[in-house]
Amino acid sequence: MSEQQQKKLIFSGIQPTGTFTLGNYIGAIRNWKPLQDEYRCIYCVVDEHALTVKIEPAKLRQKTLEAYAQLLACGIDLEKSLLFIQSHVPTHAQLSWILNCSTQFGELSRMTQFKDKSQKHPDDVNAGLFDYPVLMAADILVYNADLVPVGADQMQHLELARTIARRFNGRYGETFTVPEGYVSPLGAKVMSLQDPTKKMSKSDENPNAVILILDDKDTIIRKCKRAVTDSETEIVFREGKDGINNLLTIYSAVTGKTIQEAEKEFSGQNGYGKFKIAVGEAVADHLAPVREEYARLIQDKAYLKKCYTECGAEALRYSQRILNKVYRKIGFVASEIR
Ligand code: TRP
Fold it and tell me: Largest CB tally within 10 Å, which of 74, 88, 292, 301?
């Protein structure tokens, strides 16, 4: 990571939930790449957060490596940015303990994601699930990140991170940067292909609802052809045409054309058949290099190891300085061990 201190620092994390969806890609990951030219960027595969729902050890290990390789394949450039695995950098978990003591039970109880997830998994409402937002705050604050690209579903967590930072600063003196949310001008929300009023989600039971970034061309085209639309024939972006709006959004995101340009391109077509195929082809062509690069990277375990080791070591060095300062401020006795 370059040491140009005048550049703002971005931090973002992503859970290793398996192959990323086109929704993850267009909404988040794709935008991480251009940010690297304007900001210092720190990106992290958050395997500790993934532990808050039951997962087989072998699965967690595999998904973490796959997520790491997918992010590299999507264009994270280690000449410019850091990309590492959360559990390799112990300062996050260390800071989260300190921040726990500046966070109220009531605040965590109000988090909508906690409420949703504990309803979904009533048999495993573990303390980690409850404490999830504090670890997320630690991820961000342990680097004094200025900006955090997050989707709408994580805004409440980011707001809590800001509250914790301000509270800590108030109590112990200026220590943390209060991070801002970063909404990418390119970001777009991708909806389910089978129910375009719902967000495209990995956990959808219907595989036709979701395009994965490693799907092959035929699969992508097939899923687009089956996309639920409406009974009209006109390809325009308009309220009430959720399916078509979604396909236009996707098409625009992967081709770089505006929605208006896309509408023009397909105007006069009677019916959606050709349009759906064109969307599928555009998505598949756009993702082809990602798929190829991923296939190469995931074979090269030695290279992946070198990347996450070097980045993790640098992230540790950087965050250790900030953690040491926190330890001093709160009154821990100085230690030669750290
Ligand atoms: N909670 C985020 C999500 O599920 C992932 C995450 C963990 C994160 N730590 C973070 C995102 C820090 C931004 C910054 O999407």
Answer: 74
